Please model this.
Amino acid sequence: MTNLDLYAKAEHLLGIEEATQVLHDIYKSQLKNYNIKTLLDVGCGNGSFIQVLSNNGIKCKGIDLSQVMVGECISKGLDVECIDIADIDNKYDAIVCIFDVLNFMDKNSLLKFLDAISNRLKDDGVFIADINTLYGFSEVADGTMSVDTENEFLSIDAEFLNNELHTKLTLFQKEGNQYAKFQDTIIQFFHKIKIFKNLENLKLIDNRSFSLYDDDDKTLLIFKKDTTPKKLNNFI
Ligand SMILES: C[S@@+](CC[C@H](N)C(=O)[O-])C[C@H]1O[C@@H](n2cnc3c(N)ncnc32)[C@H](O)[C@@H]1O
Model:
């Protein structure tokens, strides 16, 4: 089991349903500004975002690196695969990365990932993502919590240091008369907006901080594919 699979097993205990709903509504209202027939949700998690959009007539595909998340989506009848963005074939009118997905990558992986995103975007396509602000990491995500239910116990110990959030998850799940223990650490990375302003194939057209849990804890990033010929680009 990977650390992303452990996150998938523990997510229902985190109490983030309401925040997820608010975030999904922000994406839906942004997407209304574009003519979208096909959408790729990268890091789709349990598929709740594409489930709603598919019901509204948009052809949606999801991908996620957690097999546990993908299994949950498939059981809901959604078109979801456990595959890296670099191995996807089709092109889409819109691509989204919702709820900190970009923070799961360090800077080098992120730049490769964004390049793969631009390759999978149609020429007039839009890419929307959100990232944690420095405040979101240091004041909201940093800290400890525990959740105790009849059959499960989860403890979370998150420390933000040197622009990295190290979150240690420990999950006990009742199996018969015993408890199975799962433990792993997820690392998330703070990214400065500057990184997103100098991309070769994606043009940042809007970025705005907003408050999901607390003051300005997230930033929404909206990109269009940059189709300016590369040689011309060097002179602009
Ligand atoms: C915080 S969850 C958000 C899930 C979903 N987007 C939502 O709005 O509820 C982050 C998800 O990103 C996935 N993930 C992280 N890095 C990824 C990558 N490089 N490619 C695809 N999925 C990734 C994780 O497995 C996890 O399901």
About this structure: The two ends are 48 Å apart (CA to CA). The chain has a mean pLDDT of 95.
